[in-house]
Amino acid sequence: MRKNIKVAAAQLSPVFLNKEKTIEKACGAIKEAGQKGAGLIVFPEVFISGYPDWVWLIPNSKGAELNELYLRLVENAISVPDNSTDKLCEAAKAAKVNVVIGMHERNSETSNSSLYNSLLFIDKNGIILGKHRKLIPTGGERLIWSQGDGSTLSCYDTSVGKIAGLICWENFMPLARNAIYELGTQILISPTWDKSPNWIQTMQHVAREGGLFVISACMPLKMDNIPEEYEFKNLYPDGREWINVGNSAIISPNGKLIAGPLEAKEGILYADIDLQDIIKAKRMFDVVGHYSRPDVFNFSINQKGKN
Predict the structure, then answer these.
(1) Which one is catalytic: 25, 134, 233, 282?
(2) What's this model's pTM, rounded to 2 decimal places?
(3) Among this protein's residues, is 304 annotated catalytic?
(4) Is 168 a catalytic residue?
(5) What range does the domain containing 250 cover?
(6) Which of 33, 88, 199, 274 could covalently link to 38 via disulfide, CB atoms 3.0 to 4.6 Å apart?
(7) Handedness of CA 105, 106, 108, 114 (dihedral sign)
(8) Is-contact 218 244, C-beta < 8 A?
(9) pLDDT in tens, 209-252
(10) How far is 213 from 274, CA to CA, in rounded Å?
(11) 134 is catalytic
(12) Given 27, 89, 155, 168, the catalytic residue
């Protein structure tokens, strides 16, 4: 197991509903991470190209308004692969950095008009390793995103170790976590929109439970990041500055914070990690090893896709 690996969590705001400029910003962050010696950089949930926070503000009866917002969202979403992923792959290869980035993904295998909340995995050679589609959106998010399936629950061997991802409240799902643990994951990527102190506590629990490193990247978003053309902006309380303050963090296998939380600002968090700490953490508790009890519990994953 390698020692002294540097990893990064990019707490950055997208250029809201502008795919081209958001990709440009992501490529700049990838370059910076490479220059600072990071072997992995993680971006927030749906970084490309912004979290649709209007789902918590606009009632579904406002169909015309929601249709226009959804159209803009789809127009600025990603198909895997496309020109946008090509640019990200080129940036990863040039910087020699593994990249995990959140995105709105079009269902290009069928209608090309529905969306998934997805993570894209790119290795340091600029090769797409795969993607993970969020298994189930939460609350109002269900009006935007389709449900993923077990075919994208995967773990990838990279130059920084075995990495896998769960998006936001998927991390609350015990069986989803168990699937990730059984794959031998060493670094869990957990992009989120949840900025709460309870979320940080959850991430610390997951790191301890799984005996792995957790990188939680959350999107900081200010009122000023939303262009004036979007009328839902007027539904926030007067005087509000921040829609989301971020609170990204990097956590060790013993549940300790080793970088962050970073609050109410943009920035890239860095942390040096040692994969041997995983073995030390699992001496007393290895949830899918000596502490598992397969004679009592059965576990399986349906990895067949819906299409």
Answers:
(1) 134
(2) 0.96
(3) no
(4) yes
(5) 5-281
(6) 33
(7) positive
(8) yes
(9) 999 999 999 999 999 999 999 999 999 999 999 999 999 999 99
(10) 9
(11) yes
(12) 168
